[in-house]
């Protein structure tokens, strides 16, 4: 009899593990705890054993019954809790969760727009390496060996001849090396400068370079293209001017200013009281540059330009600190 009780106890232990839902639980109850269940049968069989043995066997059966009731109750509780949770998960009366939409970074938005404007005017998009050779960043762009821009102060050198590009102009050389004119490209990309970080300058920023080389390209085409760009980007009522300037790789060179749209040319903090905002550098490609790429400077002329995306975005959105563009502060980014 004791043997049998032990066997039943082991069976209960096993069965309890297989209870996965309320149906299993009910079958368990019927099997062990109902009036016709195994434990009732045990009580019935007490009659067939000797009177001396009855009290101890009875006690064992009582213990078995208590154990069985306990595990049954525990399992029941677990199943009930589980089914409550489950119904919570599919509460159809809950309002839907709002999905937050991401937005493009202001620099990406500016860049996309600039690209689109130039693509509509027939420019292709090219790119080049950010880790660049001295040759492309300076030499082939007609920087003389002692030019101050080659100074360690401004350039992150990786080795004697390798550096982080300080502008996107080296890609002009790379594109011309592999293309015969006509060449008409814009080159967006990241550039690096070893400058003290402040509200106005950061150690990295973005530029868009432009290059157009063909037979008979003139300065007035350069002006026409850039004015058209500026009007599309900043608004058609804008006033502009070209000031003479200097870049080693263009001759003649110029910088383009537009009237300050914050004060409409009257003078304010953003335009430093001048009424004008400089937006880009440009010029006719210096014939010396053509020598490096094997173009015939008697046959071809062209223009180039370069602008800073941060500067243009800051002007456009009225941002007064460049660093905020790199902070990834969600409160700032959400506004775009
Ligand atoms: N590379 C110049 C800079 O970083 C910008 C520039 C000026 C690019 C004149 C040009 C250009 O292509 O023609 O300051």
Structure, described:
By secondary structure, the chain is an alpha+beta fold. The chain has 2 domains: 2-89; 106-333, 2-Layer Sandwich (BirA Bifunctional Protein, domain 2). The protein has 11 helices and 9 strands. The protein has helices spanning 2-17, 22-32, 38-45, 54-89, 106-120, 134-137, 170-178, 219-234, 287-293, 309-317, 330-333, and strands at 124-125, 131-133, 162-164, 183-192, 204-214, 240-247, 250-259, 276-285, 301-308. The strands form 2 sheets. A 7-stranded mixed β-sheet has the order 1-4-5-9-8-7-6, with helices on both faces. The protein has a two-stranded antiparallel sheet with strand order 2-3. A hairpin with a 2-residue loop joins β6 (240-247) and β7 (250-259). α5 packs across α10. The longest helix is centred in the first third of the chain and has 36 residues, at 54-89. It is rod-shaped, with a radius of gyration of 40 Å. 25% of the residues are buried. The model has no long low-confidence stretch (mean pLDDT 91).
**First-last Cα distance:** 81 Å
CATH architecture of the largest domain: 2-Layer Sandwich
Give the H and E element order. HHHHHEEHEHEEHEEEHEHH
The proportion of residues forming helix, as a percent range, comes to: 40-55%
CATH class of the largest domain: Alpha Beta
User: What is the assigned CATH homologous superfamily of the largest domain?
Assistant: Bira Bifunctional Protein, Domain 2
Please count the beta strands (DSSP E, at least 2 residues each): 9
Content-based structural category? alpha+beta
Helical region count? 11
